[in-house]
């Protein structure tokens, strides 16, 4: 069941629109657990493969290519920058950057959701709460094992706090030797619970 809600927009997009409301995020560890149960791959194999895939996508996009993954879809860059005219009136691009990556699912993937059921959401979750280091450690120990590799999104989902609060809490947990910080590939930070807790 997919929840949805209505929202009102003003200005050029004035009107009432519908948007999907997700209650939580399924993370790589959860997916890896499910895949491990039905294949011969281990959780570490799957996390390693996905991390390598992310790095390869980044390399291919940087080389000016779109990336197509059969059965999933296409990844391609959306550029941004300031268009300026030089002294001769020629257009040049200043401050060029890849603003974001776009994803276009394959037709077959979209067709898998043709019989999707929907429900209007009744209330929104509130992530405004705060937890102490001790409470955070207790919650993590009840939801994760020492073998699991957690990223910041995993910890945010488990603790049910905002992303900013999660970054602060993760730093405190590492400083208090409750989490081990593991660098895994470019820009991907993974964490493990200490075994002695």
Descriptive account of the structure:
- The structure is a single chain.
- A 3-stranded mixed β-sheet has the order 2-1-6, with no helix packed on it.
- 35% of the residues lie in helices and 30% in strands.
- With 197 residues, the protein is an alpha+beta fold.
- The chain is globular.
- It has a domain at 128-197: Winged helix-like DNA-binding domain superfamily/Winged helix DNA-binding domain (Arc Repressor Mutant, subunit A, Orthogonal Bundle), CATH 1.10.10.
- 12% of the residues are buried.
Model regions low in confidence, pLDDT < 50 over at least 5 residues: none
Number of strands: 8
- Give the radius of gyration: 21 Å
Gross CATH architecture of the domain at 128-197: Orthogonal Bundle
CATH superfamily of the domain at 128-197: Winged helix-like DNA-binding domain superfamily/Winged helix DNA-binding domain
Helix proportion = 25-40%
The span between the termini is 37 Å
The name of the CATH topology of the domain at 128-197 is Arc Repressor Mutant, subunit A
Give the DSSP E fraction (strand runs of 2 or more residues). Answer: 25-35%
Mean pLDDT metric: 84
Q: Write out the strand line-up for the largest beta sheet, numbering strands in chain order.
A: 2-1-6
- Bulk shape: globular
Structural class: alpha+beta
What are the secondary-structure elements, in order, as H or E?
A: EEHHEEEHEHHHEE
> What is the CATH class name of the domain at 128-197?
Mainly Alpha
Number of separate helices: 6
Largest sheet: 3 strands, mixed
